[in-house]
Structure formats: C-alpha cells, structure tokens
Amino acid sequence: MRSPNFIILYVDKPEASGAFYAKLLGRQPVETSPTFVMFVLDNGFKLGLWSRRTAQPAASAAGGGAELVLAVESPGAVDATHSDWASRGLNILQAPTDMDFGRTFVALDPDNHRLRVYCLDEAAV
After folding, report:
1. How many secondary structure helices (H) and strands (E) does the chain include?
2. Distance between start and end Cα atoms, the chain
3. Phi, psi (deg, nearest 5) at residue 118
4. Residues 56-83: pLDDT tens digits?
5. Comparing C-alpha atoms, which of 115, 6, 16, 8 is closest to residue 55?
6. 3-class secondary structure, 115
7. Residue 25: closest CA among 79, 75, 90
8. Would you call 23 helix, strand, or coil by DSSP?
9. Hey, how many other C-beta atoms are within 10 angstroms of the C-beta on 39?
10. Which one of 57, 62, 83, 115 has the minimum C-beta count within 10 Å?
11. Taking the complete model, does pTM exceed 0.85, yes or no?
12. Closest C-alpha to 83, from 67, 95, 71, 72
C-alpha cells in the first residue's frame, strides 16, 4: 500500500491562508490560484489549501477535526516555536506542556485547523 504524501485543508480564503502558511513554514507555495494553494515541504509532503466553497464533492467539515503535526528536535524548540508563533499573533489553544509522548503545544490557523508542535520523549516510547 502506498503511504500518504499529501493533505488538503478546506479553507475560506486560500490566498490568505497561503500567505499565513508561507510565513509559518518559511517558504513560498509552488501553486497559487484563487481557489487552491499548495506547498511542497522538504520531505516531499504536500500541503494543499482548497476553498471549501469550490471543493468537489462539497466539503462539510470545518477546522478543528484533525491536526497538522510538526515535529521539532528538542523540548526547547517546542518552547521557542510557541514563543515565535504567539508573538506572531497565532491563537494558542494549548500552551507548551509535557504529555505522555513528549513536550507539545497546539495553535490554530485562520480557519481553526489545529497545528500541533511536539518533540517526542524517547524515554516514553
């Protein structure tokens, strides 16, 4: 079976969401149109932002039903990313905390999609 390599988030304003993610990810999208924006990340994973008004079949889900998860190299990087994102005005849903899998926090994008940053606690695995 093939491995997933692409996720699409349904958004209200793809170009505005694209600008948000360009700043957040530190890269420009590889494709931009009024209804769709796509990023290709270093590992080849693709992030698509599709207008919920033009998706076919129609998208009924809104943000918050899943998480886009970003791994960082250390617990300190979790805290530094949190500080950076909070200073950029991202809505922080969960402050940095230690959980059974490691250190983590959760922020929201403009469409209320959850963005989880974490560092795995190797001792917990």
Report:
1. 2, 8
2. 26
3. -150, 160
4. 998 887 777 789 999 999 999 999 999 9
5. 8
6. strand
7. 90
8. helix
9. 20
10. 57
11. yes
12. 95
